[in-house]
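ok so dumb question maybe but i'm new to this and my supervisor (M.) told me to 'just get the structure for Gluconate transporter' and walked off. so i did the thing. is this what she meant?? sequence i used:
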Amino acid sequence: MTFVIVASSILFLVALIVWIKVEPFIAFLITSILAGLFLGIPLEEISGAVQRGIGNLMGALVIVIVLGAMLGKIVADSGAAQRIAQFLMNSFGQKHVHWAIGLTAFIVGIPLFFNVGFVLLVPLVFAVAYQYKVPVMILGMPMLAALSITHGLLPPHPAPVALVAQFGANIGTTLIYGFIIGIPVIVLGGPLLGRLPYLRKMQITPLDVFNVKPKKESELPGLANSLFTALLPVFLLIVLSLVGLKMDANSPAYGLMMFIGDANIVMLISLTWATISLGILKKIKVADIMKGYASAVKDIALILLIIAGAGAYKEVLVDSGVSGEIGASLQQLSINPLLLGWLIAAVIRISVGSATVAALTAAGIIAPLVASGVGDPNLMVLAIGSGSLIFSHVNDGGFWLVKEYFNLSIKQTFLSWTMLETVLSILGLLGVLILDLFILH
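this is what came out, is it supposed to look like this??
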């Protein structure tokens, strides 16, 4: 019965948004409340679950997304994105620029959360696409593939790190296996898949915040300044993370390092630097810069609400215990433990929406098998991580992040992002099984 309720709630959500044309945030609230009622959550607790879901997700994302939009705005308006786009095109050539975007996203995605890397790289994707008339999804798919794989498979991202600890795996070995599997998967799922004819033909109009007319060469900032400012958040997070790992937790400077290394603080520092280097030092009035920031926030206000609604729906499903019930029923299947771990994570991901929740829930269910010596713990981390990526749809905040930032229709989002996540998940599983069969035995 639980499966029927979850499936019905998802269909109801889709019907509200697609056919009745209800604003997605309102549709999420209605669906969350109804799902909570039918899944047996006490009436007095449903509102709290909705509020927690919104609060938890927004608390983690709102500062990064807002400051990221502002950073993207000034990088675009100042011509820095145009300068970087010229550099990429000159380095790789127009025919291979999608490889440049994929490589950049892979490097950026290792230390950064998916949402942070996404917000930072979207302006670059549109800048290259706009200036050189390259179809947006040829560039968007490599970026999304690289960020997804690093998020789902590679430490130091939260889910892989938690799984390594829970299974007693070796984080270094897991990282090496992750590279062996992840890089070919990114190549197949990003630059190559992105060249499918129907993706090339998608007519995508960027949000106004990214739709900037090209400047004259003499008006562009220098390449060094453009690259440094645009990638400053990445640089700071990598350096501060490495320094933090080598510091003693009891050191007086440890707390300061953790504070400065927080993604929200890094974004604030980066935006401050961008305001100075690309704005004030270029003789642009502070008031004009702030007007640009205000317009950037207006462009993403609905995005924040939609993601918040997805968080509410996810929390209701988690609080109902549906993920544990689904996983327990699947554990009865007699199949390869790596495939079982992937399958449990995949079903929970489709039902609940959150890749992290899917991975951690699946880990708790599959942990006794790993502890008994069944299945390699390092590969189990990657199998579950791959399963947690599959079929992102309307109950996932990432689905709406991609839809709204790329200004896609729901159908286009399914045909691009959802399809990509499913391909990455299946290829990741195949990579794990091949590695288990031919290298480890």
